[in-house]
Amino acid sequence: MKQQEIEELLQGQFDLDCPRVELTPCVSTSKKKPLLGSGHIALNKDGHFDLKVYFPGAFSIDEIFEQFNWEPGKIIPDEAYYDLVAHDLAGHKWQAERFIPDKNSGPSGSMLIGKLPELRKIEENYGSSDKGVIQLHFNKVIKVPLNTAVKELETVDETTRKMKTSIRLARFEACRIDFEIEENEGHTKLSAISDSVLFTDVTINRIFESFSFVTSHSESWSILLIRNSKTIETRVRAVKSRRLKSRTPPPISYQRLQESGAVWGLFDRYLEHVLANDTDYLHPISQENYAVIESGKASLDVEALTLSVSIESLLRKELSSFYKVSPDIIKNICVAKELVTESEILDEDFKSRTIGSLSAMKNARAKDILFALRDVGLIDEALIKIYGSLRNKTAHGTKSSGGDIQNYYNQVSALQVLFFQLVFLVIEYSGEYTDYGSYGYPTKKFSGKQT
Q1: What is the DSSP string of 345-370?
Q2: In 3-state terms, what secondary structure has residue 111?
Q3: pLDDT of 142-187, one tens digit each?
């Protein structure tokens, strides 16, 4: 995309007049025929692209009222979805996958409308560089610690009339990738360059996940450019212009200018860990982090519940090796189950429920793992007490935000710190972090490591 086109899309302007639009059923065995027409694609500020396609012929009654055959409560069948190829006036070929069209017919022809979340196009790369390059453009300013000055000169002939210097870049290296983050005209651009790392979809996701973690920003990019030695791929997404802001802070609180490399050191550790997973679309830890950030847009009760669940998930899935149920407990459970089974006094329903509860005792509780982490000096006991108190209340539907709001906010903030510390343990990060559970938000040092 040209720079002007990028700026227009980031400002909410995107219109494509398409003389040729091809619609193909997603299912190759579908009895539906491919459709060919002309139309228009425009950005909608509600978070999608509006598609309109015109056809000279008419749709059948069955096609127009197809949605009435879908059974309520069931997932819409794959046969209802189409893939799109749209050729614009400039000769570019845009594609979109899996969308459901709405068909209408009249005396003069037919029209199909639909909503597209993402469009992409692929062009040949005529450049000479073999380095892989990606650019993620966000349609808002995302605060990051900046560390690089940019000089702008205005010259007339050979005379310099104006010179302006401003610090608006962040540059750093992580996992053999050179990164640059720039703020300009109310938008943010993240660039990544490497001659040794292949920028696959999973790798790009992991970079975005790492950026989301250190900035506590969960909103999607608006434009993604992927350049390799042979092709340049452009993907555009319709991102809402008005969005709720999350209360969730970044793990390290920072000013706009910061000489310390702690934030990008954390980025490096997180990226290295999540890159080891090349199968999941989103890394499991990133899924938990996304849920936590999004909960910061809701009430404190929702945020407390989400943090409690995410902390428990991290403990069970990522840190369970710190605690093993002892052989004595396993032995006692087996004895207790045998006593319950052979009892002639207890009824069968009670026996079944009791045996189920006893069997669950063979698995480590989240608290057991936390206590094990405490015993080896990795987690502060005060955070564990707060977690135990809030976790029980939120899990059983007790709303706590109506009383002492300051104390409740402090407790939720402490849970946020505990969540960050558990992630630090998983990714083996040692360094600065911000203690949001203490007034003044002091910077502290985390040095815990798994053994």
Answers
A1: SS-HHHHHHHHHHHHHTTSPPHHHHH
A2: strand
A3: 989 887 777 766 676 677 666 667 677 899 999 999 999 998 888 9
Give CA angle at 395 (392, 398), nearest 5°.
80
- Asked if 436 and 249 touch (Cβ cutoff 8 Å), the reply is yes
For residue 212, give Cα distances in angstroms to 95, 205, 218, 281, 428: 27, 10, 6, 15, 18
Amino acid at 413: S
Handedness of CA 426, 263, 286, 120 (dihedral sign): negative
Alpha-carbon distance of 40 to 54, in angstroms, equals: 9
Q: DSSP string covering 10-54, please? A: HTT--EEEEEEEEEEESSTT-SSPPEEEEEEEEEETTTEEEEEEE
Question: Which amino acid type is present at position 443?
Answer: T
Compute the residue count for the chain. Answer: 451
Helices 348-360, 327-342: axis angle to 10 degrees equals 180
Q: Quote the tokens at residue 139.
A: 């349609």
**Smallest Cα–Cα separation from 52: which of 84, 11, 89, 28?**
84
The residue type found at 273 is: H
Nearest 5°: phi and psi at 28? Answer: -65, -25
**Whole-number pLDDT of residue 91:** 92
Residue 1 bridge partners (DSSP) = none
pTM (two decimals) = 0.88
Q: Which has the closest alpha carbon to 249: 135, 417, 407, 398?
A: 417
Rounded-to-integer distance, Cα 51 and Cα 25, Å: 16
Q: Which pair of tokens denotes residue 76?
A: 């819409």
pLDDT tens-digit series, residues 269-296: 999 999 999 999 999 999 999 999 999 9
Asked whether the beta carbons of 386 and 374 are under 8 A apart, the reply is no
φ, ψ (nearest 5 deg) of residue 314? -60, -40
Residue 57, amino acid: G
Helices (H), 262-380: 262-275, 284-295, 300-318, 327-342, 348-360, 366-375
CA neighbor of 202 nearest in space, from 276, 311, 266, 120 = 276
Which DSSP string do the residues of 368-427 spell out, in sequence order? HHHHHHHHTTSS-HHHHHHHHHHHHHHHTT---TTS-HHHHHHHHHHHHHHHHHHHHHHH
Question: Given its phi and psi angles, is residue 154 left (phi above 0), alpha (psi -120 to 50 degrees) or beta?
Answer: beta
Pairing of strands 177-184, 187-194: antiparallel
